[in-house]
């Protein structure tokens, strides 16, 4: 079908995790968040794109709206094509968000998974959503996992793309990218080609360079281009972005469908991490795709066509 979640995803044992939804009423308030010790003032409003189905393909009443969360240096525009494919396939609205310090969302000095999860919770509340299905890649995946673990009543299902609920140092490439972006900004480039020549010293992959340079824009009244992301804040936050806010699965778990999509050339979901994933997400399923960490951009057609499902197992054996 050439789409992100073709029919065989929905008919498989896992039920594509996006269709296995409850219809429990929306019951939540800011007071509950405070009672759980989340004394965080959220960043709002988060910028978003809403992709809606046509009238003929409107979802059933119990179909979950989808929240799509990008990774580090990403934005809602990176998920535009996949979001539209999900809308066509599932007939449900997709909210592609810009997380704090990314895209068109506000900047804030604090950048970790607790606050990003709280931002997304506030977005869900502000838009009167319920039983959402959350898809996240990389940084967005850990944000989605934190949201599901802390406020499970708000989340119907989870798709984590190439990240696990563990503490693991980020690939050194991310720090390298920030150094390159800082050099670009200091050079006051006026054309993207100039920026690309600088970034080639830090990254050889053209698709990844294009992804990073997608953050460039020209402020009104200026000749030089600037990055939308606050490089100083993200540079200080890199160590925290390898962490996960919860360490003990016995104290917190998400007892609903969860799909973990792993890039086989990436190190962010290893076999040794599977017991921890199962502890936090007892109903998890695992899917592999032949790609690295940037698997959606590296293998977009494979990801969209559902080839990722061909090697999916039931609950993996973890010994």
TrEMBL record:
Keywords: Hydrolase, Transferase. GO terms for molecular function: carboxylic ester hydrolase activity; transferase activity. GO terms for cellular component: mitochondrion. InterPro entries: AB_hydrolase_1, AB_hydrolase_fold. The keyword Cell membrane does not apply. Residues 65-298 form the AB hydrolase-1 domain. Belongs to the AB hydrolase superfamily. This is Glycosyltransferase family 41 protein. It comes from Ophiocordyceps sinensis (strain Co18 / CGMCC 3.14243) (Yarsagumba caterpillar fungus).
